[in-house]
Specification:
Blueprint lengths: L12 E5 L1 H5 L3 E3 L5 E3 L2 E4 L3 H11 L16 E5 L7 H20 L4 E3 L7 H10 L4 E5 L1 H6 L1 E6 L8 E5 L3 H26 L1 E3 L3 H10 L10 E3 L6 H11 L8 H5 L17
Length: about 270
């Protein structure tokens, strides 16, 4: 479920029958010796999954990427020493190398943004907009104190800039990276749970969907209702209020939640 209240299908599997076998003249020999067009299926993990990640987690400040799919999990921005302070610059370079090595040996993907033609503030804005989970800022004064500044992309995970000892960066951020992943996942799960309407009537669902507008945020969400599988009724519902079936939740159906209930559209026994 996206933050707009709409569903995004992706990573789905489809039974294609023999249509592609016939179209491309691909055949097989059955156990009886007969030759027939092959049966096909598709298992689709495509760019639609990327769109789902963007829509599920991002905010008004830009992308918010879960650590496990982020190209850079940490971006380190060194604040260069002033001209003529070569010794301080060497100490900074050494500290940056040590932090990077400490993070990388713990499996954290880190990128050092040492572009000298871009201001630090512009770098901070760029990486926040690109959704990098965590940013480290470190300058000569920080090195003298043996610390750096850490800023997480989502302030409701950890608010503001946090001082952290340079010697603790690798261990702390590798642990916090997993916690940040769980934080984003739990927020998405909570949003899904709160956006599912149970046992609505067809009239209630139809009215809500008919009144929904793209400008209204969030949208109606999902409806979990008793249903008797019927392709003709499914098509009628799509025509009447543009609603489509997204999935049959396994936990609900294995728990036989539909037993003793009537289909919310036909009034027949739910299946």
């Amino acid at each position: 479920l996206m933050q707009t209240g709409g569903a995004r299908g992706g990573g789905t599997s489809h039974y294609l029958g023999q249509s592609f076998g016939k179209a491309f003249d691909v055949t097989f020999q059955s156990d009886t010796g007969a030759v027939a067009p092959v049966y096909g299926s598709s298992w689709g993990v495509s760019t639609r999954m990327v769109g789902a990640v963007v829509m599920a987690h991002s905010d008004d400040d830009g992308l918010v990427l879960p650590p496990r799919v982020a190209e850079h999990q940490v971006v380190l921005v060194p604040i260069k020493a002033k001209k003529g302070e070569e010794e301080k610059q060497r100490a900074l370079d050494s500290a940056v190398s040590q932090v990077v090595a400490d993070l990388e040996k713990r499996g954290v993907r880190v990128h050092v943004d040492d572009r000298d033609w871009v201001r630090n503030g512009a770098k901070y804005f760029e990486w926040e907009r690109k959704g990098v989970p965590c940013r480290i800022e470190v300058g000569p004064r920080d090195v003298e104190k043996g610390e750096c500044v850490v800023k997480w992309r989502k302030s409701d995970f950890k608010e503001g800039k946090i001082g952290l000892a340079l010697s603790d960066v690798g261990e702390t951020l590798s642990e916090d990276m997993e916690a940040y992943h769980d934080f984003l996942l739990q927020a998405a799960q909570a949003r899904l749970a709160s956006s599912v309407s149970l046992d609505a009537t067809y009239a209630e669902m139809s009215a809500a969907l008919s009144a929904a507008e793209a400008s209204i945020y969030p949208g109606p969400g999902l409806y979990l209702v008793p249903w008797k599988a019927n392709s003709e009724n499914e098509e009628k519902i799509k025509e009447e209020c543009k609603a489509t079936i997204r999935c049959y939740p396994l936990d609900v159906n294995e728990g036989r939640m539909w037993e003793g209930k009537k289909c919310f559209y036909s009034g027949e026994d739910a299946t």
